[in-house]
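Hi R.,

As promised, here are both runs. First protein below:
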Amino acid sequence: MEKTAHPALHKVRLICFSSLPPPNLHSAMQLLGSMAKLEAIVNTEDGCLSVRYDLSHHTLEALENQLVQHGHHLDNSLLQKIKRALIYHCESCELDNLRAPTREHYMRTVYLSSAHGKEHRPNITPADEYLDHR
């Protein structure tokens, strides 16, 4: 797998399968291995699949949804559900942060928008316009 521009986007995760029915790890590995920018390795001792992927192309949630759609049964123990939910949330936040404008870009847009506001334009109208006319 190619290295990403930013090493923080390079993820290595374990996908654990339910013991009943017995998982077909090789089928799951072939399914995920056919995807671009993703490596899948079978870990036979604990019935899990180790995946290595680039977050800019894949998320764990999408990979697991793909496996479930193809008939694979994931480990749904409470601990695995909590781990999964935490990883889904963290990856979602990372992707949102990547899409967010940088502070420098944000500050530039704020200053530009305020500089074009009415209070920063040259005062063309006469000053008596602002006096109280009764």
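And here is the second one, sequence first, then its structure tokens:
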Amino acid sequence: MARENKSLPELIKTRRRVLRYTLNELGQMCGVTHAAVAHWEAGRRTPGAAQLHDLTTSLEMTDFQVRLMLRRLSQ
């Protein structure tokens, strides 16, 4: 499955685009700035534990996608 090969930044960016959220909208949902979301998508930073729940909820991620994201975070 191609989705399994996506990096964490790609997972975040793809889901955000599928849902047609702007960086600012997703940032507001997660309680962070649009710049923080841009850093996550660029791979310069990773979401902290406090933002992870809000991020996966906001991006309407499936259990599979959440497990994949957690696996990518631990790498």
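A quick note on the second one: The mean pLDDT is 87. Let me know what you think.

Best,
J.
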